[in-house]
Fold:
Amino acid sequence: MVSKLPIKLNKEPLLDAVFEMRFSALAPASSILPGIFFNKLDGKKIISQLPTGELPKQIRDTDPNLQFAPIIRILWKDFVLLIGDRSVAVGCTMPYAGWVRFKEAILKIVNILGEVGIIQVIKRYSLKYVDLIPYKNIGEQIASVDLSIRLGDHCLEKEKFQFRIEIAQDEYINAIQIISTAVATLPDKKIKMEGLIIDIDTIHNVNNQEFMDFVSELQEKLDKIHLMNKVTFFKCITPTTLNALEPIYE
Structure:
């Protein structure tokens, strides 16, 4: 159990942060929402179509892997909007703006959705953070997480590996992926980083909750799912790794 959570890491390992909603709507969201967001959001915006948008709608509708896939991307200030036929996601560009600003952006987007009125019910929402622990040596990568893997009489010590598990906690599911010897390119710095990926997607299936009921509870829901994701991350890493990331406490 994590006894005390830092408010910030001086050596921020974050690569990506995304909040996603999946829903049923009166019409394909990708055909209606981009223009509305473009008009209602202040500041500079850049809109583009993703490769999924080139596929026929019939294929997107019938393929389970594509039903919630993003079709349109809008770059807006320090954030990215990803719009599908049945989904809307809000992501952060790096460097991370922090949870307070990220939450404000999510609430702004959801309030606009409430004004538009095309969303009927929410199926699920999720918050995903992807971090990279910057150790190049595979032994250091394995030692950086509180993880023990044995296959038969062999214990993981210096081998490349990918690990995925879904852990149910109350009404949430933490889908955790840990990947060794990963290479990531930071868009803002255009440099490559090597290390261990810790990908935590905290999911809440809400079974067709009325959208406006969801909106009325969203601020509390966001804080709860963020805390669960954060606690899960700090449970995954060792005290030595935490110290190396230079935690800052209140």
